[in-house]
Specification:
Blueprint lengths: L2 H25 L15 E3 H21 L7 H23 L7 E3 H25 L10 H26 L22 H17 L2 H28 L16
Antiparallel strand pairs: 1-2
Helix pairs in contact: 1-4, 1-7, 2-3, 2-4, 5-6, 6-7
Length: 252
């Protein structure tokens, strides 16, 4: 079996795994953040856990990319910059901006996310730097143009929503407040909407099974969590806006 066949089979496995992951997360919410609860074994500080589980997406991705035969080509380099623009922030900047305190995360969650990010980094880095076909003309293709616009828009929404949530953290104030403004007027979780949009754009821009698998797996994780957040807001705040949806304006 060639590496390309292994790569394809792993991407198909991630796609297939999205179904039970979605079903499991619709049944039980992952126990971290506002949904943290006892009974999930040993824990570690949330800031440390976040860095550990996300760092393969930034570091391992770059290492695997660098050994590819197409690593110096213009289109793969652009895709690398897009990926790292998101994941350097997600793995290192975002955790350092977390609210200080005693919040913790189960080691089980960290380990599962770490393993996924290892596999996902391999799939996407190896595709764009080795197996994919990206001549210079790819810059003008409808898939690349539309995908890049979606990716940039999604990352911008994600960063804006994260910043808006951080701005609600007033020293000595409540742990959580009702966010408002911009897309928060329409949905409870524009940060998740932005992330799903970004990776759908990545799938388009790379036009790859690896990218599609990642986009579908992202939605399988974030849609249930957005619904859980939405329910939590409604339980916690009697005056929560009735017309606000969970993650997709006017729909869901």
């Amino acid at each position: 079996m060639t590496e390309l066949q292994v790569h394809r089979d792993l991407a198909l496995a991630v796609l297939a795994l999205s179904v039970p992951v979605f079903a499991a997360l619709m049944w039980t919410t992952a126990p971290y953040g506002r949904h943290a609860r006892a009974g999930w074994g040993p824990t570690l500080p949330a800031r440390v856990g976040w860095i550990v589980m996300e760092c393969p997406a930034a570091l391992l991705f770059a290492a695997i990319y660098c050994i590819g035969d197409q690593a110096s080509d213009a289109v793969p380099l652009t895709l690398l910059l897009m990926w790292e623009f998101h994941y350097v922030n997600r793995a290192f900047v975002y955790p350092l901006r977390m609210r200080p305190g005693g919040r913790r995360m189960p080691v089980t969650i960290v380990a599962l996310a770490f393993l996924f990010n290892v596999a996902n980094a391999y799939l996407n880095a190896r595709w764009i730097a080795q197996f994919g076909a990206y001549p210079l003309a790819w810059f003008g293709s409808p898939a690349f143009v539309a995908g890049t616009v979606m990716f940039v828009g999604g990352v911008a929404i994600n960063r804006w929503a994260d910043a808006r949530l951080r701005a609600l953290r007033v020293p000595g104030g409540p742990c959580y407040s009702i966010p408002d403004g911009g897309l928060f007027r329409r949905v409870s979780c524009p940060n998740y909407l932005g992330e799903m949009l970004a990776w759908a754009g990545w799938a388009l821009a790379t036009w790859s099974l690896a990218g599609l698998a990642f986009a579908v797996f992202t939605a399988a994780n974030l849609l249930p969590r957005a619904l859980a957040h939405h329910r939590w807001y409604r339980r916690s705040f009697p005056d929560y806006p009735a017309g606000r949806r969970a993650v997709i304006p006017f729909l869901l």
